[in-house]
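cron nightly-structures :: item 1 of 1
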Amino acid sequence: MRLALIGLGKMGYSMTLRLLEGGHEVVAVDRNADLARELATKGAIFGENAGDAIAKLSGPRVVWVMVPSQVTEAVIQDVAGRLSKGDVIIDGGNSNWKDSRARAEKLAEKGILFCDAGTSGGVWGLKNGYCLMVGGAPEAVKITEPIYKTLAPADGYAHVGPAGAGHYVKMVHNGIEYGLMQAYAEGFEIMKTAPFKLDLHNIAAIWGHGSVVRSWLLELLESALKDDSDLHAIKGWVEDSGEGRWTVQAAIDQDVPAPIITLSLQTRFRSRQVESYGAKILAALRNQFGGHAVKKE
């Protein structure tokens, strides 16, 4: 089928290539037109802008929006103004599930269908496929399902519920990801400071075979440790996409205890501090009652 894909970042670019390999026709659009032109040399159809791309579609027209959450609303509004009843917008970015549910309701007033596709796979998705958690009305999913089946590996796609459900499930997915990453980080730091000189790359490698803690994240860690076991080239500064925060807020709203995910998010905040003021307070208090403090030189 033919669709427009707006947003050719790392994932949008690779998704376009995977769709082309799967036999779809993709009108590629990005504010950096050079990316769209580059993809045109690889089989995509160049779209100068959203209006140009939509003009190259036939009904029901399908537009996949793959842009940062900060600009998603503006892009969807622009696209919606150019579509008609029965057309479909897919949001594959990291939008808040509440926003996705509200957008679906607003678009429905115009007869425009909406799907929110929680998308996981990162830069490896082109090769391995993208896990897709799709929310939307059955009629919207029916129209767009060939896209999901091409992007996902075997058994890697599901229609998880109505609009908003896709991004809700992806939100929780990312919260779990935070906790798993933090557990690996803590465990490998304990081994790094062990009274033995351990080969951490080798340990990561053997854990990937038969161990109960094996995972794709562990495979990625093995790859990272292969050429630089001390990680000299990496700064210990960790960003969060926002979905970890939303997961913690959902846990609070729903009275669900989630200490691991919450603490893993807090640890990411700590990674961004060169020197924690809170740690200084702790040191100062301990010095006041116990006379223990390390003075700056």
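cron nightly-structures :: done
The chain has a mean pLDDT of 93.
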